[in-house]
Write a structure and sequence with these properties.
Number of helices: 17
Distance between the termini: 61 Å
Radius of gyration: 27 Å
Strand content: 15-25%
CATH architecture of the largest domain: Alpha-Beta Complex
CATH superfamily of the largest domain: 2-enoyl-CoA Hydratase, Chain A, domain 1
CATH topology of the largest domain: 2-enoyl-CoA Hydratase, Chain A, domain 1
Number of strands: 21
Number of domains: 4
Shape: globular
Helix content: 40-55%
Length: 539
Amino acid sequence: MGKINHLLIVSLTCLLLASFKVADSFFEISKNIEIFTSVYKEVHKSYVDEVQPGTLIKKGIDAMLGNLDPYTNFYSENQAEKALVDRMGEYGGVGCRVKIRKEAIVVTEVFTGYAFHKSDVRAGDIIRSINGKSLFKSTISDVSVLLRGTANTDFTMVIDRGGKQLNKRINRMQVLDKSVPYYAAINKDVTYIKLNQFGRDAASEIRNAIVKLDESGVRDQVILDLRYNGGGLLNEAVDIVGLFVGRNKNIVDMRGRTENNNRKWFSQMEPVALNKKIAILINKKSASASEVVSASIQDLDRGVVLGQTSFGKGLVQNYFQLPYRTQMKITTAKYYTPSGRCIQLLDYSHRQEDGSVGAIPDSARKKFTTSKGRIVKDGGGVQPDVFMEPFGGLDLFKQLEKHYIPFDFVNDYRNSHDAITKIDFLTDAELQKFIKTASAELSVKVEHEISEQLNASFEDKSFVTSALNASSVQESLEKSIQKNLNENKSVIKFLLEVEIIKRYHNQDLTYKKMFQADPEILKAIEVMGSASYSKILNK
């Protein structure tokens, strides 16, 4: 009896302590909400300058959430609508991407088959005005509001193309961003599928691509290209893996702070490629759902992963509706692949003294094993089975892209050539002209950046100027850049030609070019067609 009483007392004590803990938590929440509200009201009432209530509270919320992780966000009413559109991948608009360049709105990409394409609006065109409203110094959000709208409504705009003003009337269309923009048979053995995002019906699109290509001939190898794919819907990622591994396989586990956020995800789709060899291409821009697919295929020893180490996003977000049609996206869990690893790279729960976030060190990364006993590690993205360095000269090319140098060259080529009819078309003279111009322009940009950094450190600006001139920094930079570009001119030619072909909205020609010269695609074909495939999966 005494033992029962003792257990009863212990149980009641635990319940009381838990109750006190909950009460303390509610008190802390109530107290701090009251303090925050009082500060907000007092600033609005007493601050020397007039403040905008909505702007003030939005900045406060953003600052509060900024201490968590970059994926936990608050959305105002307008932002919430855009977030829904981004998730669903469907909206009324014109089919383009734009950027701000020198305070002007520049079209950077035009989607094939949509309103801008049909009206011959091109990448590189500057949008000067819409319905008579000047867009100079406008924000991307301002322009999005004007470009998007109900399908079958129209507007007028003035564009600048190479200094020439053109008037356009644009009829908005229903825009649906396909998850699979392209698929094709590279040869009788290999199917290639490009997956841009994990939108609604992504798994069905991949299934349909495989089935359709199978019907046209025997294909026993699949390349799934997840490069530059930032993710999307988790259920689509699970279903995609199911196409290759079968139904009722545990693909990924979600583990959160509360029981509601814990869940096991099992494949549900009927498989269509159980016996096919698989090569998955990833790079450092492959994130989230892309990592679920590549890590699961790797853990289950179902295929080979090639490329560079992925981004390292092992966090799961959910959307929550808030008052006045606002909403939040909150990180509610981490996901774990079949081997039990989480590939999250950055540790947001342990910030450094300056507020920055560090990567999980290699020494802290734990080892896990695949279904066949291969070693894989957590905490650093998905490491490919076949690591490949990025294209030679690609880092320098990215610097050129940062300053729009290839962008301008490609646009000029498109505007001066009505058509292209073959895969290889840039002449040696055209390529050398690009290399020479690019070297001169980039060297000036880099010297300017160096000058700005030095001027920030030295009070004597004349010293900086004379030092840079005396050492002929710009001349030295130009020679080094030109040398590097010439050493990698085959890659530079390939990258330029791919971008030029895209300007003509010829997907078949674009991908034929990639099948001819993309080293990662070529390596995937080589691995699947040799004994290397089995050796990798049975290490």
